[in-house]
Specification:
The protein folds into two domains: about 90 residues; about 230 residues, 2-Layer Sandwich (BirA Bifunctional Protein, domain 2), CATH 3.30.930.10. By secondary structure, it is of the alpha+beta class. The radius of gyration is 41 Å and the shape is elongated. The protein has a seven-stranded mixed beta sheet, with helices on both faces. A three-stranded antiparallel beta sheet has the order 2-4-3. A hairpin with a 4-residue loop joins strand 3 and strand 4. The protein has eleven helices and ten strands. The longest helix is centred in the N-terminal third of the chain and has 38 residues. Helix content is about 40%, strand content about 20%.
Length: about 350
């Protein structure tokens, strides 16, 4: 029996040495150490041995089983290591090849303008407020001095969801919401950037969805001259120190008096060109002094405080600033258009 065990050991170790795949190793394991293998059969037959021979034979069987198991494990480790090395050879990167350039994105021109405007007004002490794009009729119109039968509602053709909710037509509702939260305790100094929606036919200068930035300042002794100073600083920082502004009388239901602001044309320096239509001036935004009714409905006493408000379209400013001739370029995601602003 001892000779049989030694012969099995030598055969197994020899076959393990020659094995070249995991399957061959597994077959050898089953053939020699499996339930039906010769070593197992020898172990079962030790009961026929004498009491003196049995311990010695048992020890020998265990030694041979351990030797074969250790060799099998070593073979498996060797095959796994060889497989990894072979895979690494196939996956080796040739570092002498030129690399593939990674395309980098850049800020959208409209985003650039909005962030520039935000930084400008933050520097003047304004804070940024945000509000819902789905708005109630009350905040979008009534709280801004536009009751349900007011003819000025026709100025803004709206997307209604229900009779009392709609997609906001301007960012002005945040005037009322902000003042209402403060419950008459000022001062208020905010800008409100965000999307607005109006039922309009899309063309080169109109869109059913666009951006707007609202500005509001409320406090004691706030005057029209303060509005003019803020807007003049805005115009010079956005379009150059040589820019001049003019305020023309206008009408907005939520401001009284109301004005339109023009800047001197930065193309022709006021001499007249196609951009300014020969006038030397370009319309930029609208504003005015907050209507007493708006202050009163929002919890402020118009006898004690006053305020000004203004609203501008970042698309129009971006179009003028960068010479863009079609508002639709901002929203079509054409990479040829976006790439032109990589160096800005």
């Amino acid at each position: 029996m001892q000779e049989r065990l030694q012969t099995l050991k030598e055969e197994a170790l020899s076959q393990i040495e020659k094995a070249s795949s995991m399957k061959e190793v597994q077959d050898i394991r089953v053939a020699y150490l499996g339930k039906k293998g010769p070593i197992t059969e020898i172990s079962k037959g030790m009961g026929k041995l004498s009491a003196e021979e049995r311990p010695k034979m048992g020890q020998l069987v265990n030694e041979i089983r351990t030797a074969i198991s250790d060799q099998l494990e070593a073979k498996v480790n060797g095959l796994e290591k060889a497989a990894v090395e072979e895979r690494l050879k196939k996956e080796t990167i040739d570092i002498s090849l030129p690399g593939r350039p990674i395309k980098r994105g850049n800020h959208h021109p409209l985003t650039r303008v909005i962030e520039e405007i935000e930084d400008l007004f933050l520097g003047m002490g304004f804070s940024i407020a945000e509000g819902p794009e789905v708005e109630t009729d009350y905040y979008n119109f009534e709280a801004l001095n536009l009751p349900k039968d007011h003819p000025a509602r026709d100025m803004q053709d709206s997307f209604y969801i229900t009779e009392e909710t709609l997609l906001r037509t301007h960012t002005s509702p945040m005037q009322a919401r902000t003042m209402e939260k403060l419950n008459g305790e000022g001062p208020v100094k905010i800008i409100v950037p965000g999307k607005v929606y109006r039922r309009d036919t899309d063309d080169a200068t109109h869109s059913h969805q666009f951006m707007q930035i609202e500005g509001l300042m409320v406090g004691e002794n706030v005057r029209m001259s303060d509005l003019k100073g803020v807007l003049q600083s805005f115009a010079k920082k956005m379009f150059g120190d040589e820019r001049e502004i003019r305020l023309r009388p206008s009408f907005f239901p939520f401001t009284e008096p109301s004005v339109e602001m023009d800047i001197s044309c930065f193309i022709c320096s006021g001499n007249g060109c196609s951009v300014c239509k020969g006038t030397g001036w370009i319309e930029i935004l609208g504003g005015g002094m907050v209507h007493p009714n708006v202050l009163r409905m929002s919890g402020f006493d118009p006898e004690k405080v006053t305020g000004f408000a203004f609203g501008m379209g970042p698309e129009r400013i971006a179009m003028l600033k960068y010479g863009i001739d079609d508002i639709r370029h901002f929203y079509t995601n054409d990479s040829r258009f976006i790439k032109q602003f990589n160096t800005l």
